[in-house]
Amino acid sequence: MPTDNSRRTFLKGAIACACCGATVAGCVTQEGENGEPVDADDSADDADADADADDAADDSADDEEPEQDDDYEEFDPLDEDTWYPQLVSTYLDHGFETGSIEELDLFEERDEPHYGSAPMETPDDEDELIDPDIIDFSMVPTEDPAIYEETMEPLIQNMEEETGRDVEYVGLDNYAAQVEAMRSERLHVAGFATGNTPFAVNLAGAVPFSIQVGEGEFGYRLWVITRADNDEINELADLAGRTVYHTEPSSNSGHLAPVAAFSDLGVTPGEDYEIEFSGGHDNSAVGIFQGDMEVGPICSTCYARAQEQENIDSAEIKSVWASAPFPTTAFCYRYNLVPELQEGIMNAFLDYDYQDTGIADEFEDRGTWVEIDYATHWHDILVNHEVNGVEYDDDEIE
Known about the structure:
14 helices; 14 strands; globular; six-stranded mixed β-sheet; 398 residues
């Protein structure tokens, strides 16, 4: 069923933030009303205020703080001074793989993209529009391209209902193929990885309109992880002189953001330490857990999925640095789809709640889509690209 809200959006105004885009993601603040820290669970707690005494007692027990390892400072997700070093199990216990939804609302509004081109406008000339009989849709490429086909079925059904067209899921196994498919009009709707979204905008005519969020949470963070029993690495400066495993050259959290952020903090990747590429976030998570790789930057939500699938014990992994949240996968349509299809596609994402479907089960309870603005929400990713000298051409896509 459609949600009660006709359109979920978190662009409510231009709220300036005094933070550096090259070092922290999102340009966000972390205070609520009256300057008090925001608790992402406050709204849920308020909804339970009228529960009976027994339920209240149960809720109180459920809300007890997770146990903290005595070797680490007490962790507070809203106090950056306590973010690292910490056991990754502590992060996961506190839901620190994502940001709070309040943070998404506090991005500073931007009129134009910081770097590269703005998304293309819908053509006025009807001859330039496309009106496909079948809408082709893909998710972020994975090693198993068909993995999300069944999961995304509720969304696909709603796209079919809203557009009046059949929707076909297209499984792709690499970023370059996904960008090329949309550029050649063989892909009409897609979820592009954070770092790959600017390539899709600049090369393939992609128009980002939404990201996937949970109830009170959004996005992902950059963590720098190593084994907990590694006594030689406890802060970012300890990476100097070592081999550090980044994930892939075009990955935002796995390479581009570390290069920009770490350099600004006094540790220059490629100069102060040697970079090797693991080939992906899953590879980094498993390799570091097994001791085949010593340390590396990783996408927090990618780690969370990998630790479940690969039986990684997160109490044996620690993080020595963490970022503020980045937006996650951008969902885009091709700019020259006829306006009726654009509208129907956006309706299927934004006007329905998928929290009770397999979509939320697969994506850590992220079963809702909210509207975003590319220039605003991708600002810090674009800063990272500029700092890294990324050029939007085919050779740069990995």
